[in-house]
Design brief:
By secondary structure, the chain is of the alpha+beta class. The protein contains 2 helices and 3 strands. The model has no long low-confidence stretch (mean pLDDT 90).
């Protein structure tokens, strides 16, 4: 397994915060879902911090592990939706 560190920025206006909440669009939920759509594998993203609903972030750090060898360009493609 490989551990990946990601540094992300997002406009939180359309999100119900960072942490997954059933029935709500969250940053972590969107990242995990789009990763699965592109790579066909599930991941669990762990953030170094959280944001509340509607809050923006610049430079937020998170990690995930996977058995895939992924190039940074592939992650950008998966997450620039």
């Amino acid at each position: 397994m490989k551990k990946y560190k990601i540094i992300i920025a997002y406009d939180g206006i359309d999100f119900y915060g960072w942490q997954i909440k059933a029935g709500h669009r969250t940053v972590t939920g969107m990242l995990q879902e789009s990763f699965k759509e592109v790579f066909g594998r599930e991941i669990i993203i762990v953030g170094a911090s959280r944001t509340d609903a509607g809050v923006h972030a610049v430079g937020q750090t998170a990690v995930f592990t996977t058995d895939l060898a992924i190039e940074p360009e592939q992650l950008l493609f998966a997450w620039q939706n």
